[in-house]
């Protein structure tokens, strides 16, 4: 590439001059290329350690003048070819012009101007890339791609200098962190280490410090443990690695790739060594933390934050903290954790005003809201800029949501009624008629969709005065008074000051009348509800009458949701629950519906309207309990892992016992999924839910630890899991809420008692108090750190479980070992998950248009390079389009024809050159039993096994079936009509299926037959008889295979010819197949005459499908030696259109043009039949061209006349050629599998070829080598993996 000219003072240090003229010098870096000796090793080591640009550009061109010692760089190159191109351009275009100049200064000025002009012209043609990464970073990315053979789409995020510990020796080098890979490269005195690890393979990532590895980062995969240390900033590196591993786990979980955030604001001054991608990831991390801290909607983006103080009127103090500004909110968090937290939605803001500064109150800013609250911030560093940003965001806020203005003077603003939550004393609207939308969808607009407008508890609870409730009523009244005072002092609604006092009140219990309101506030659901008016009603209307798997599961669970509560013992509550759950399943189909959601939602409906319950469910599923309610309950398993880890740290004695009994995994899942609602009396569990909405998952973990701690002695004495479950179940059953004013609801969890001892009651408030006293050291950021660690374990464990389940589902007679099946599954899954191409659907791996990384990777490993390129950004099709997580593991990943074609090319032992895609297409059609154009792993392995395992007969049988329908489609033959006349669907589509597939589909066939027999089910003996017949039918013999017509046989010969083209025994194999094919053609001819004499079959097509009636006894005899030799040009084989397009070789070409049937010789010793083949391709490494090969001794010399040996089809006379065009294939000609097998057995070289064992493990390793570990050391050297 051309470079902006820069001065070089010492031109020859570490460089070798290779070419020179009076004005330019071409140099190569020492140590690059062959030789170099000790100097080369030292220079190579220096380049790696110092991260020199010479690693990526080892060639350069300098401009020089004769009398000056100063040189100027004008170009550099990564290869000799690239630099030579620049050198020749300079010689051809500049040398003559430069010789005219007299002044050396003029020469240098002219050269510099010319080079700048070339660079400007090149840049003009480039598309603007948006955020431009700094030059140093681009250079590092180029090094990474060159060193590890990464495709263009793989983006470098950052790179760090560090040491990799190989054994006990540290290797200093560079760690490259890309979106999908962790890469490391080191070169020290000739010792090279190159590592590539995919983030999706990482099972453990942690920062630790040991005696051997001081402050290191440990990265574990299933195969290896890697340690990296000596970082300049280990904290920053580890944080970035965590983010990238997290993205990879997210990709495994829901198949979402990483997409760059285009909406991020561009920096005013780009950082020197920080890429746009790194900035993107940092912004994502800050956004996630901001949203989690203040419970904001998922689309909220942090614009910036600044230090300030907030005046708190309740204690008359200026509290220091941070102000956060985003597009819809202004938030404040005090430095001291519980001192104060504040959320001000911009829709509520009426006035933003800059107050006068003073020494006591520097740079104050006053913000007023609709609810007549005013917030005073001070000590703002850049107040004017801040006010401008707030003003910009306010202008974007919809006018109907806000009132007022911003400015330096206070204006009198007539505001709309302030946004406030419904006060408890407001008279509720009468509930409208609640009918089931699924049973009878009414026809009304979204505004008329029936929804309950208040909590079901208010509808079904008898409103008795507080005075009648005695002490409980008095306690409830006191709680309401306390909250009223709190609202007066701290504000009410979204803009309330949240302090330690708020937490105290929550822990003492929220009054029944305020519970729904405060849940909405603390969860952040209120914000989403007011910004999406009418959204729920619209969803209910859209989801009416829609049927799905989720709605089926919802209907099944509706009557299991708190059946003990009167609200859900009638259609009113059930219909409301149905609408909320169905609406959410419609909103979020990736979650849909999960068990336990019904229990939680039914409680939400007791305290809020349907719309409020819906938005609370959104907050729970999408923010507060991430990934809890998906098909694999990953989030709950992650938090269960955290619980086990905390138990190990805090209650070590008990932890050992619990692990021994295996209890924790049994109990904790239901605790977390239902927030204790399913294991505790309702009125007690709801108090835990109060705290959960305020504190998050921390409370659930604390209470779980407190429960174990309270039962420690009894649990330590337990002898089995059942006893431990009984202890905990009895304890939780007797956690009571003595302050509840609701009538007690019988808890349907089994009432467990032991002996005659009455159960001891535990007050829920005492349990909460103990949990805060003993275990309140848990912090939100610590929990997030632990969640990351556990998420790696859980997701990788689930992946392993899925892999084992799929492998177990494969029949034992497949032939592959468990390890081979697991490796094949990983290859299959990666292909199924990361397919992102639509334009490539019809292309083959050999096509020049095929996308893929350029360079050695594409040349050496075309499929793998293409596969790697398909993984990265911007796939034109969403990843894992063929994956349905609700299906069984075996059916979750399926591949289409183009994906199968690529896998087939990579793994098949029958490489056929350009004919391979044709064979792959036939194999795919054979395996695609249900004709949905997708195959699962079992079908894939069945096809692979047919090629790799079994004896000669089995392999030939698999190859034979590939040349019969349904594998061979009519379009692949020129005479399609005759082919279909011979092989109807009845005779081919069922019989041509692989044996293993028929076994797998046996049960389905039985089911179909049952349905055909009628509705009255026969007895079990009938089914057993059918099953026995099916099993007998599966034992396919070679006699069951249909016969092959002439076209199909020619296609088989073409495949065999291509298959032998790259074999070391190529010549011998060609001789053998020529002999065999010629013999078989004669057998078919004689059989045709024999059939015509005996059966007198008509030739009008009425005999279609009758070829199977021929038995072994009818097999035509081999022609006698005394028959007269005849020669005739037969109609050609139909070539596959793709094969023709890509230049089908060897027999394919020969048979497209013509073929000769030779019947000659007067005895086996003198001569036997031979098929003589043609080829239009020359082979450089052959002493004999393949098209002139005949079987040695098969023909006498006098038989080898000019019209026998075909070269490009010249043997056929013009008359024969014209008749070929309009002719038809002989439809009476056919051959059986037994005849083909018997003929091949006569040639030992063919027998050896098919019985030769091929190790599929080596082919899988080749693919993994490209995916995991590969590097290049020079332009022309093959990639080698070291270390």
From TrEMBL:
What's one GO BP annotation on this UniProt entry? system process
Entry-linked SMART domains: EFh (SM00054), GRAM (SM00568), TBC (SM00164)
Q: Does the keyword Repeat apply?
A: yes
Record PROSITE patterns: EF_HAND_2, TBC_RABGAP
Task: Please report the stretch or stretches of sequence annotated as the EF-hand domain.
Answer: 922-950
Q: Where is this region: Disordered?
A: 396-448, 836-857, 983-1021, 1091-1146, 1158-1178
**Keyword annotations for this protein?**
GTPase activation, Repeat
One annotated GO molecular function: GTPase activator activity
Q: Which InterPro entries does the record cross-reference, listed alphabetically? A: EF-hand-dom_pair, EF_hand_dom, GRAM, PH-like_dom_sf, Rab-GAP-TBC_dom, Rab-GAP_TBC_sf, TCB1D9/TCB1D9B_PH-GRAM1, TCB1D9/TCB1D9B_PH-GRAM2
In its keyword annotation, does this UniProt entry include rRNA processing?
no
Q: Bias category Basic and acidic residues: which stretches? A: 836-847, 1006-1021, 1097-1110
One family from Pfam that matches here is: RabGAP-TBC
Per UniProt, residues of the Rab-GAP TBC domain are: 509-696
Q: Where is the composition biased (Pro residues)?
A: 419-431
Compositional bias (Low complexity) spans? 432-443
Describe its function: May act as a GTPase-activating protein for Rab family protein(s).
What protein name is recorded for this chain?
Answer: TBC1 domain family member 9B
Source organism per UniProt = Neotoma lepida
Q: What is the lineage of its organism?
A: Eukaryota, Metazoa, Chordata, Craniata, Vertebrata
């Amino acid at each position: 590439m051309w470079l902006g000219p820069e001065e070089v003072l010492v031109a020859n240090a570490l460089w070798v001059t290779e070419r020179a003229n009076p004005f330019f010098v071409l140099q190569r870096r020492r140590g690059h290329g062959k030789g170099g000796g000790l100097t080369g090793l030292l220079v190579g080591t220096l380049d790696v350690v110092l991260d020199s640009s010479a690693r990526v550009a080892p060639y350069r061109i300098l401009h020089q003048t004769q009398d000056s010692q100063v040189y100027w760089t004008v170009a550099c190159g990564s290869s000799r070819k690239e630099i030579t191109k620049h050198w020749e351009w300079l010689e051809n275009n500049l040398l003559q012009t430069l010789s005219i100049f007299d002044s050396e200064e003029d020469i240098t000025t002219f050269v510099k101007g010319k080079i700048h002009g070339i660079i400007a012209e090149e840049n003009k043609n480039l598309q603007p890339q948006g955020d431009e990464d700094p030059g140093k970073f681009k250079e590092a990315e180029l090094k990474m791609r060159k060193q590890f053979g990464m495709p263009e789409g793989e983006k470098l995020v950052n790179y760090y200098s560090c040491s990799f510990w190989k054994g006990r020796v540290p290797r200093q080098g560079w760690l490259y962190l890309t979106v999908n890979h962790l890469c490391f490269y080191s070169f020290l005195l000739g010792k090279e280490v190159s590592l590539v690890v995919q983030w999706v393979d990482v099972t453990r990532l942690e920062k630790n410090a040991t005696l051997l590895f001081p402050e290191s980062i440990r990265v574990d995969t299933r195969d290896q443990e890697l340690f990296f240390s000596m970082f300049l900033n280990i904290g920053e590196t580890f944080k970035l690695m965590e983010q990238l591993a997290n993205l990879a786990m997210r990709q495994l979980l829901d198949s979402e790739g990483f997409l760059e955030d285009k909406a991020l604001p561009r920096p005013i001054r780009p950082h020197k060594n920080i890429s746009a991608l790194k900035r993107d990831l940092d912004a994502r991390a800050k956004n996630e933390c901001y949203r989690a801290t203040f419970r904001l909607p998922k689309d909220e983006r942090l614009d910036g934050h600044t230090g300030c103080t907030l005046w708190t009127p309740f204690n008359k103090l200026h509290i220091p903290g941070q102000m956060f500004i985003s597009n819809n909110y202004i938030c404040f968090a005090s430095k001291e954790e519980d001192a104060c937290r504040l959320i001000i939605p911009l829709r509520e803001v009426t006035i933003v005003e800059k107050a006068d500064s003073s020494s006591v109150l520097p740079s104050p800013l006053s913000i007023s809201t609709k609810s007549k609250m005013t917030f005073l911030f001070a000590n703002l560093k850049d107040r004017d800029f801040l006010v401008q940003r707030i003003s910009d965001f306010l202008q974007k806020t919809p006018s109907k949501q806000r009132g007022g203005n911003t400015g330096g003077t206070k204006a009198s603003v007539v505001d709309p009624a302030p946004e406030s939550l419904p006060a408890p004393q407001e008279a509720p609207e009468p509930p409208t008629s609640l009918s089931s939308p699924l049973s009878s969808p009414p026809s009304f607009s979204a505004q008329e969709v029936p929804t309950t407008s208040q909590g079901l508890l208010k509808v079904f609870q008898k409103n008795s005065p507080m005075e009648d409730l005695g002490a409980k009523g008095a306690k409830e009244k006191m709680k309401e008074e306390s909250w009223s005072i709190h609202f007066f002092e701290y504000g009410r609604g979204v803009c309330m000051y949240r302090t330690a006092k708020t937490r105290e009140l929550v822990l003492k219990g929220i009054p029944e009348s305020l519970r729904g309101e405060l849940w909405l506030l603390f969860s952040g659901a209120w914000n989403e509800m007011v910004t999406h008016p009418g959204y729920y009603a619209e969803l209910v209307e859209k989801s009416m009458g829609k049927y799905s798997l989720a709605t089926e599961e919802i209907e099944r669970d509706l009557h299991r949701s708190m059946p003990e509560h009167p609200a859900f013992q009638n259609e009113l509550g059930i219909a409301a629950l149905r609408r909320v759950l169905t609406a959410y399943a419609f909103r979020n189909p990736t979650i849909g519906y999960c068990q336990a959601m019904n229990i939680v939602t039914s409680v939400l409906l007791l305290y809020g309207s349907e719309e409020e319950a819906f938005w609370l469910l959104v907050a729970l599923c999408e923010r507060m309990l991430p990934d809890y309610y998906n098909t694999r309950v990953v989030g709950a398993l992650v938090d269960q892992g955290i619980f086990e880890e905390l138990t190990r740290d805090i209650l070590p004695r008990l932890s050992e016992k619990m692990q021994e009994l295996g209890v924790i995994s049994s109990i904790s899942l239901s605790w977390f999924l239902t927030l204790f609602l399913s294991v505790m009396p309702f009125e007690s569990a709801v108090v835990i839910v109060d705290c959960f909405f305020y504190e998050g998952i921390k409370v659930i973990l604390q209470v779980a630890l407190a429960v174990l701690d309270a039962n420690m002695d009894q649990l330590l004495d337990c002898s089995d899991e059942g006893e431990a479950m009984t202890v905990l179940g009895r304890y939780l059953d007797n956690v009571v809420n003595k302050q509840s004013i609701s009538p007690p609801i019988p808890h349907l969890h089994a009432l467990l008692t032991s002996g005659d001892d009455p159960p001891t009651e535990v007050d829920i408030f005492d349990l909460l108090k103990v949990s805060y006293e003993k275990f309140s050291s848990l912090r939100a950021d610590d929990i997030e750190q632990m969640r990351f660690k556990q998420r790696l374990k859980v997701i990788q464990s689930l992946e392993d479980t899925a892999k084992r389940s799929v492998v177990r589902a494969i029949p034992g007679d497949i032939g592959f070992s468990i390890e081979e099946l697991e490796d094949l599954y990983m290859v299959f899954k990666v292909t199924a998950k990361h397919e992102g191409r639509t334009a490539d659907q019809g292309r083959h791996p050999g096509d020049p248009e095929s996308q893929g990384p350029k360079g050695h990777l594409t040349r050496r490993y075309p499929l793998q390079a293409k596969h790697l390129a398909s993984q990265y950004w911007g796939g034109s099709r969403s990843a894992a389009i063929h994956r349905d997580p609700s299906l069984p593991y075996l059916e979750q990943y399926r591949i289409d024809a183009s994906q199968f074609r690529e896998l087939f090319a990579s793994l098949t032992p029958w490489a056929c050159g350009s004919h391979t895609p044709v064979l792959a297409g036939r194999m795919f059609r054979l395996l695609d039993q249900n004709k949905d154009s997708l195959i699962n792993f079992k079908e894939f392995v069945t096809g692979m096994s047919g090629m790799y395992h079994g004896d000669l007969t089995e392999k030939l049988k698999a190859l034979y079936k590939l040349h019969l329908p349904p594998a061979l489609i009519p379009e692949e033959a020129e005479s399609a009509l005759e082919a279909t006349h011979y092989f109807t669907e009845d005779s081919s589509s069922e019989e041509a299926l692989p044996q293993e597939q028929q076994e797998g589909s046996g049960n389905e066939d039985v089911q179909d037959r049952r349905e055909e027999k009628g509705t009255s089910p026969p007895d079990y003996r009938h089914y057993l008889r059918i099953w026995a017949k099916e099993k007998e039918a599966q034992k396919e013999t070679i006699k069951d295979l249909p016969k092959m017509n002439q076209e199909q046989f020619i296609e088989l010969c073409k495949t065999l010819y291509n298959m032998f083209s790259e074999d070391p025994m190529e010549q011998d194999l060609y001789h053998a197949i020529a002999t065999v094919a010629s013999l078989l053609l004669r057998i078919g001819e004689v059989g045709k005459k024999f059939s015509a004499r005996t059966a007198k079959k008509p030739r009008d097509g009425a005999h279609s499908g009758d070829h199977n009636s021929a038995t072994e006894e009818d097999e035509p005899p081999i022609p006698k030696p005394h028959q007269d030799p005849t020669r005739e040009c037969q109609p050609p084989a139909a070539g596959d259109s793709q094969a023709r397009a890509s230049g089908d070789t060897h027999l394919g070409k020969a048979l497209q043009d013509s073929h000769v049937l030779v019947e000659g010789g007067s005895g086996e010793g003198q001569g036997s039949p031979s098929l003589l083949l043609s080829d239009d391709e020359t082979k450089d490494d052959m002493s004999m061209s393949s098209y002139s090969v005949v079987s040695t001794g098969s023909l006498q010399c006098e038989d080898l006349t000019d019209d026998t040996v075909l070269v490009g089809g010249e043997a056929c006379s013009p008359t024969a050629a014209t008749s070929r065009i309009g002719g038809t294939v002989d439809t009476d000609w056919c051959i059986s599998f037994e005849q083909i097998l018997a003929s091949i057995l006569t040639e030992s070289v063919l027998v050896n070829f098919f019985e030769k064992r091929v190790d599929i493990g080596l082919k899988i390793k080749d693919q993994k080598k490209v995916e995991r570990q590969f590097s290049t050391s020079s332009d022309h050297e093959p990639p080698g993996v070291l270390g």
